[in-house]
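Give me structure tokens for this 200-residue protein.
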Amino acid sequence: MPENLPDVLDGLERLDGPWSLADAPADATFIDFGALRVGAVEGLRFRPEYDQATRTCGAVSIRSGLVQVQLQVVAAPRGEDRWTALRPQMAERLRAEGAHVSVVEGDLGPELAVLRPHQRPDGTTAAIPMRVQGIGGDRWMLKVTSIGPTVHDAATRAKVDALVSRCAVERGSGPAVAGSVLELTPPPGAPRPGAEGGRA
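Here you go.
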């Protein structure tokens, strides 16, 4: 579970993103992760996530208050809603792990509301609230996974949606396997594997 940090998303206005980078407003400001551009919010704490085997970055985690939000860019064929195919597969996998999963209609489209079992050090089990979204664009899908005790509350959902609405994707013209996670390029000075999260 994320520790209690300042809630820098509180009061954040929701925009009309996420966008393909070419369609983003001219005055939008971002933290540049290559394929993913995260909307710049003052005090935002972020941490690039690396694959242990390849040492490549495939996700960015953002922490605010009691919520941790993971952002990934997934390749999709042109004109295909990738989330429609991935959502039932993900729900089935989570249920096989003992999670309670339901599909709900969010402001950014259908999403998964999850209570995932987690074993505490003392052997007891707790239910960890999770929220998984898939927002599609031109040959990409932004996968958003939120975790924390309040992620299913309306106020927290709105804060996460406001953050997501400020992001953009630079898919590029190169080929990519449908469903694959695109490699990200952390900005200079971003934490490396094993380091603490950075600030915007």
